[in-house]
Structures are given as C-alpha cells and as structure tokens.
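Quick entry, no commentary yet.
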Amino acid sequence: MVESIARVRHIRVTPQKARRVIALIKGKQAQEALAILKFAPQGASEPIYKLVASAVANARVKADASNQYLDEQDLYVSGAWVDEGATRKRFQPRAQGRAFKILKRTSHITVVLSTPDELTDATPVAAGSKKASK
C-alpha cells in the first residue's frame, strides 16, 4: 500500500471556500479528482489541482524508491482537509475618521492519496475475536 501526502501552507484562499472544493474530491480516484478540479469554477480549485498533482508525483517517487509497482489509476483521495492559517489584518479608511478592518485569511491544505489495501478483504477473522451475543 502506497500512501503519499502533499501540503500547501499559507495559501491566500479562505478556509471556508477551500473546504467547498475539497468536498468535491474526497473519496474520489486521483485522476477523476484532477478532472473535476480542472473544470471547477471556484478560485480555490487551481491551487488544490496543483496539490493533488503533487501528491500523485510524491506517490510515484515513493513507489520508485521502495521498488513497488504503482498504477496511478489505483490512487484515490483517502483524506483531505483544510486548516485555518494566519490571518493578515489590514485597515481601510472610512468616513468620519473611522477605520474598517479587512481580514486576509489564509489556509493550510493537506491531501492524502493512497492505494486500496487488498489485505483487508482477504484477512480471516479470528474465532475468539467475536463477542458473544445475548
């Protein structure tokens, strides 16, 4: 089982908008996720597209380093989340000497790709592990 992680930090996309795009690709196949992101109209889809492509490349490098066969069609998005980054605060002058606060939010986005684990279907259940039903 190959698992690769790609992260981008301090990206200038609000976490709320990035989470909308991440929800489109969770659980999807990596190539399908790239196709969805390529044509998604949201502004956050471009940096997330690059992030998923980077995770695919990371999986390829990791598989080559460990002499494992990797079919990129088997990769799927097993996890993806958006954390809130640092917020830059700016002020805009308003009428009568007031100031208007502008919050420029950033995000930390993480994407985890993995191949399905074939061993989970083939492992037999131990006889003593089942609980007795009453």
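second:
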Amino acid sequence: MKSIVSVLMSATLSVVVAGSALAAGPAPAAAKPDLAKGEAAFAMCVACHAADGNSTTPVNPKLSQQHPEYLIKQLNEFKSGKRANAVMSGMVAGLSDADMTNISYWLASKLAKPGFAKDKDTVALGERIYRGGIPDRQIAACASCHSPNGAGMPAQYPRVSGQHADYTAAQLVQFRDGVRKNSIQMTQVAAKMNDREIKAVSDYMAGLR
C-alpha cells in the first residue's frame, strides 16, 4: 500500500511540475544579431581595423570573416581584463553584450581580403610547422586546430588565414612569454617555439587561402 501511495504521489508531482513548465511557456529565444547596429557600433574601431574589418596596419588584426563566437569571447575578455591590452580594454569598456554580439556578427559577414607570405627563405619552415608541427619537441600542427586552409573552427578556433604576419607573431610571442594568458592551448604551443619558428609560421599563415 505504501508503495502504491508513493507512486501516486510521484506521478502527481510530475504532472504539477510539467504543468508549471507549460504555464511558464518556452524559454525566450536569444535575440538575433542586429547587423546594422553592429556596423554603427564598429565606427569607433575603424581607425585601427578599417571600415570593413580588413586592417591595413600590420600590427592591428584583420577581423573580417572571423568567427563571431571567437570575437565575442575576445571582446568579453578584454573587458574583464582576462586578456590584457590597455587600448582594447578602454575601447570595449562601454560596450554591452548586445553591442559585442552585433559587432562580431557584422564583422563575420564581411569578406576577408587575402594576404601573402613575404619571406621566401622561411616559407618552407613555416609550412612544415603549420601542417606537421615539430614532433620531436611535441609542438602540435597548427592545422589540427585552425584547419588546413586556416579557416579555423567556428566557436572553437579562430580563422588565421590571411592574417598579418606581424600581428600573429606578436601574439605568439605574448603567449610564449606569459603576457597573453587567455588560451592555455596556445600558451603551451608557443612556449616551445623560438623566434625564427614563430616568424616563419606567422608569415606562412598570412598567405594561406
């Protein structure tokens, strides 16, 4: 008898909970990015990143066609201080979550302009590191995360193809030296690389298609 009562009480509770959930209705859908607002908000970024996100300044990254999830993560980490950069921290301080989402999705909608490898003396070394890593030092191939053509993987790893070699090299050095601390994987990889290897692979990535 006790067992039957327990079953009935459990069934009644399930009905009540289910009924409450139905009464509450479905969870609200996430707001869709507003690309027009994203473009408007990006106006303050144009001086460094160009009007369409294709920066022409080698030390400033190209942002066009980048995965929006990656951009949102970086903007949030600049704002929180997890990724240290005095200029960017100031730029994002007044941005809301919606602003960051709108800007990121707008940038993702812009076509990235291709770049070019410039150092013919190290391009073979850069390709070898990008595609095969450096096995004897347990350095993973860049292509394993960023894909063979540098397109990256949405929501996980950024697009690196066509990126300015100067910017990429600077970031790898910052990861290696512990200045940039917002990616354990990149810190572990860069920690084992010397300046020549960093320069070579950065130049090679600039020319990826």
